[in-house]
Amino acid sequence: MTNRLNASLERILPEKRLFLRPDDETRFVRLRPLTQLAALGGITLAFGWTLVASSVLAIDAMGAGSSRDGIIHTQAAFEERLTQLSQERDARAAEALAAQNRFTVALEQVSQMQSQLLAAEERRRELEAGLDVVQSSLRDALANRDGQQAVADAAGTDAAADPARRAEVTAALDIVTGELRQAADERATAVQEAEQARQAVAELSVERAQILARNDEILTQLEDAVTVSVEPLDEVFRSVGMNPEDVLETIREGYSGQGGPLTPMGYSTRGDAALTNSETKANQIIVTLDQMNTYRIAMEKLPLAMPVKQSFRYTSGFGRRWGRAHEGVDMAAPVGTPVHATGDGVVIHAGRQGAYGNLIKIQHELGVETRFGHLSRIRVKVGQRVSQGDLIGDMGNTGRSTGPHLHYEVRMKGRAVDPMSFIKAASNVQ
Length: 430
Hints:
Elements: H1 2-9, E1 16-20, E2 27-31, H2 33-65, H3 67-155, H4 162-239, H5 244-254, H6 273-301, E3 313-316, E4 319-321, E5 324-326, E6 329-332, E7 338-340, E8 345-352, E9 358-363, E10 368-378, E11 385-386, E12 391-395, E13 405-412, E14 415-417, H7 419-428
Antiparallel strand pairs: 1-2, 3-6, 4-5, 6-13, 7-12, 8-9, 8-11, 9-10, 10-12, 10-13, 13-14
Helix pairs in contact: 3-4, 4-6, 4-7, 5-6
């Protein structure tokens, strides 16, 4: 069967002979058509795989290169939205406080009107009691007058004093009647004002309830927004092998300053369940915003950027290679390609070190260290503080290297971790 295949391929791929001529003899190697076909097929497959892999890696590199800008843009948009929601929440809280003040003033007015109404009612009762006394005295006076009139008629005495007595009683009745009429008018006015005050209180209660409902809706939206935004940040730190609680605790220890004068706290003696619920939500939102801000500070301290911003090719990943551990990723590009710091930190090594060749070590916060090996030129010094994106060296072929490339490592507390987890974490924040 092999001979038939060779015979069929003879017209396309004729047999080749490779002659080897040492000093004393001549040898040759026969390359049959089937062998040539297998070699061509292997070369074609290898070239195709290399082309596809390079395209995929180039696309990944371009996407990772823009991840930092996406993070900054997303964070700025989210902070702007949070600011808007916070301003609207403060406005609603101010409206609720104003409504509460108006409600309190209305209650005080109603209390004053009720006091006036009770005073008018007490005065009316006193006047009615006085009127009863006056009427009793008038009846006694009339009875006494009738008796005296009878005696006068019988005795024939002069009754010239009776008209003066009647005028005095009539004047007293007029005074009592005027006082009663004035008390009745004041009572009617007080009742009308009290009714108007009750209506105003009812309207203020409805307005206050609407403001509280709207305020609660805004607080709920804001609470949901910040809760959803914290989850991807929490996942970022877990994906790179860091405990989010430890990260937050470390950042808070470094940002824990307090101060300012202390003023006495004010407490309300009335109490309001709705306002207490809103305050609870607002306090929870403040706690979540503080957590998100702490995460943001931690994100700025992690080496999440790409060390090479120009075109390159991944030639080796993190893990086992040739039976040994490869503790970083290799990025191949021409000699002299700029190498940038992937995060803020301090240079702790800048020189030659064994198989690394020319090596730069940068110590970041949170126990993270980055290494840049095989450089052709080092542009920083030990003790120098660098920021993310700063130029620190040029790509080269020093140390144990088969060609110009950058060996990039990330270590956490001395343990090597996959640098791609940090690069992918930056894109996940988007």
